[in-house]
Amino acid sequence: MPRQVDHDERRRHIATAVWRLAAAGGLEDATIRRVAAEAGVPARQLQYYFGTREDLLLGALDLLNRDGEAEAQQRVAALGPHPEPREILRSVLLELLPLDDGRRQRQLVQAAYFVRFMADRTLRDRIRDTPPELEQLIALLLPEGRRDEADFLLAGAAGLQGQMLLGHLTAERAVELIDHQLNRIFAGDDATGGGA
């Protein structure tokens, strides 16, 4: 009796090959031929599951982001049944930092996508209208829903991420800076000790 094909598993297997190539050498290395070789499947299978190379890259990114969201939800759930907004926000922001191998790998892949989006207007245009869900979530967790603070926190976490990936900032210092900003926002400037 023929074995049932798990199409979601096949798509994920192909996507992880894209991620490995992207993390190792950027998305320029993620050609149809190289992804097929990395995944150990025929090139026509990539086209069957994803279509064009552009669709393959965006499909792999979508799976990567969904995995990241699922892990973030698990970490938030681990905070307990009724976490405070500050605890949830801290967990969300720490998810953006390479604090373990899984997050580091995911963020290296996302950095490769960032570089590609900067150079490829077609890909950039296809994601331009993606809803800013993370910014909206952060704003909802902030006192008075401050969108300016949400944008600042997200940009700050992205900057810390890059500095950590380059080895210019330790994990401890990055977490300390996140906590400093959260203290400022949730407890007022007095909680930061008055320093800038």
From TrEMBL:
Every HTH tetR-type domain range: 8-68
Q: Which residues bind DNA?
A: 31-50
InterPro entries xrefs:
BetI_C, Homeodomain-like_sf, HTH_TetR, Tet_transcr_reg_TetR-rel_C_sf
The record's listing under PROSITE patterns reads: HTH_TETR_2 (PS50977)
Question: Which branch of life, at top level?
Answer: Bacteria
Q: Which residues form a coiled coil?
A: none
Under what name is this protein listed? TetR family transcriptional regulator C-terminal domain-containing protein
- Record keywords: Transcription regulation included? yes
